[in-house]
Amino acid sequence: VQLQASGGGLVQPGGSLRLSCAASGGIFGINAMGWYRQAPGQQRELVATITSGRSTNYADSVKGRFTISRDNPLNTVYLQMNNLRPEDTAVYYCNAVFIRYGARWGQGTQVTVSS
After folding, report:
1. Which helix (H) or strand (E) holds 77?
2. Mapping DSSP to helix (H, G, I), strand (E, B) and coil, where does residue 25 land?
3. Distance between CA 39 and CA 112 in Å, rounded?
4. Strands 9-11 and 2-6: what pairing?
5. pLDDT tens profile 23-51
6. How far apart are CA 78 and CA 5, in angstroms?
7. Is pLDDT at 104 greater than 80 in this prediction?
8. How far is CA 56 from the centre of its chain?
9. What is the distance between the alpha carbons of residues 34 and 97, in angstroms, rounded to a whole number?
10. Tens of pLDDT, residues 7-20
């Protein structure tokens, strides 16, 4: 199985981006999916998670600005990021907990918020 993330880029403060992460391969079901980020010199931190039943959890720093969602038939998780701030600049990683294989990480996608 693999996770393919896309949607990162350069955006001005106050702008928006939408990240996508699609799982592929011999999938036999996915429990939680989520997004994490890692800024230079810092540890990877949780941004948002969503269960198969669509219960969500957000880091305090992104509440009210970011929205996580998922499309179960497409095995895809999304992260809508609005009102972006320079401190949101980081490499964003998707994560999925596969029923058969456990947790897997996707490759990172760079998000840069700068004027």
Report:
1. strand 76-81
2. coil
3. 10
4. unpaired
5. 988 778 999 999 999 999 999 999 999 99
6. 9
7. yes
8. 12
9. 9
10. 999 999 999 999 99
Hey, CA dihedral for 16, 73, 59, 107, is it positive or negative? negative
For residue 104, give the nearest of 19, 56, 20, 32 by alpha carbon: 32
Q: What is the arithmetic mean of pLDDT over 69-91?
A: 96
In a 3-state reduction of DSSP, which class is residue 66? Answer: strand
Closest CA to 63 of 32, 88, 95, 41: 88
Contact 80, 69 (CB under 8 A): yes
- In a 3-state reduction of DSSP, which class is residue 109? strand
Q: What is the pLDDT of residue 24?
A: 87
